Amino acid sequence: MRPIAKVKDWMKKDLITVKTSMPVPKLVKLLNDEQISGVIVVDYAGDVMGVISALDIFKIFREERSMDGLVAEDIMTPYAVQITPEDTLGDAALVMLEKNIHRLVVTASINQKKPVGIITPVDIIAALVKEGGY
Amino acid sequence: MGYLEPLGKKVRDVMTRGVVTVRFDAGLEEVLRAMKDNDVTAVVAVDPSDEAMGIITTFDILRIFRDHAKEELMAMTAEDVMTPTVEHVNPTESLENAARKMLEKKIHRLVIFSSETGRVPVGVLSSTDMMKILCENLRR
Description:
heterodimer, A: 134 residues, alpha+beta, CBS-domain, four-stranded mixed beta sheet, two-stranded antiparallel sheet, 6 helices, 6 strands, 37% helix, 19% strand, B: 140 residues, alpha/beta, three-stranded mixed beta sheet, 7 strands
């Protein structure tokens, strides 16, 4: 992978975020309507707090809980990974593999928690193919 | 997991029919092209009789790019890259079973093998497919 390939050049900037207070039934509808397998959860200030995937929703049912009264914050996986637009795609790939996560939320800098993009293995592979990493 | 059982729906009612496959001896470039052209994040590697040998996800691709030099990558085939265990369900299984399997293995996708076709994959069930059923149930 060319070291100059940066996260900022390949991340998706159209983000779907939900507030920590979003009711879970509404969240299920959103995932279905948008045909996405996960969303970013942000607090009132717009800072990333967690991520929710379809599996987090299945977990509710495995535990035989009801969706009623649950909000995004109750079921999200807290998000603690730091990746910024200036990091290389190689850095992003290593983080994904080490932490076993497919969706990295990109924030403007390490002191900033507002999401500015999202990067997935598909984006990295697209870069590898296009930039002749392969 | 009652929410996944509205109207007695099964895997066959929500699965995506058909699956993108590559031959086990396909080169890495062909694997990448199959993913890109079909806009999928996983392909099934099959033997000459179309039976599944393994699955290749975008994660497997990242891993081999991390672990191998460019010259080595050029010589690699689907068989070298694939994860040899294919997590699967039958079309007649309950969606509850499918959800349990996804949770247990922490995966978002199951390959469908039917009793008539043995290990020849007939479709894929994704966690996104299952959201549809959850939504239908919410509306009831």
